[in-house]
């Protein structure tokens, strides 16, 4: 049974703040990569492509964590909480909106082997 958690954290910067938000999010990568449970953690920005015309917030973190508990511990790190307080929750922050969702790769009613 997979215990992995997949997180998609997307961000809508305020007008003219796209580059600043991208750089601010990049500062979170080095320490997060030091967490043993972090399997993948990369901030990306949307680009124009004729084969992918969908709409989304323009900056997205793609995360994979070893387990739900370890993802939740990551979210409680002071650096992460400070980022959200300064950039998302504060009226002076550069981020207009954020959408953070977690996913599993397990199908419903998965018959996981008991070990």
UniProtKB/TrEMBL annotation:
Transmembrane keyword on record: no
Residue ranges constituting the ABM domain according to the UniProt record: 5-103
Pfam families named among the record's database cross-references: ABM (PF03992)
Protein name per the record: Antibiotic biosynthesis monooxygenase
Taxonomic lineage: Bacteria, Pseudomonadati, Pseudomonadota, Gammaproteobacteria, Oceanospirillales
One annotated GO molecular function: monooxygenase activity
InterPro entries to which the protein is assigned, alphabetical: ABM_dom, Dimeric_a/b-barrel
Organism: Vreelandella lutescens
Annotated keywords: Monooxygenase, Oxidoreductase
Gene3D superfamilies to which the protein is assigned, alphabetical: 3.30.70.100
Entry superkingdom: Bacteria
């Amino acid at each position: 049974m997979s215990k992995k958690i997949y997180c998609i954290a997307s961000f809508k910067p305020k007008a003219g703040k796209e580059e600043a938000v991208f750089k601010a999010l990049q500062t979170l990568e080095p320490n997060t990569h030091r967490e043993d449970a972090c399997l993948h953690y990369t901030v990306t920005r949307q680009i124009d492509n004729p084969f992918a015309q969908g709409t989304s917030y323009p900056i997205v973190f793609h995360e994979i964590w070893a387990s739900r508990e370890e993802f939740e511990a990551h979210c409680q790190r002071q650096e992460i909480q400070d980022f959200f307080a300064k950039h998302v929750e504060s009226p002076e922050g550069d981020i207009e909106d954020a959408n953070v969702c977690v996913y599993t790769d397990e199908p419903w009613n998965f018959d996981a082997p008991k070990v």
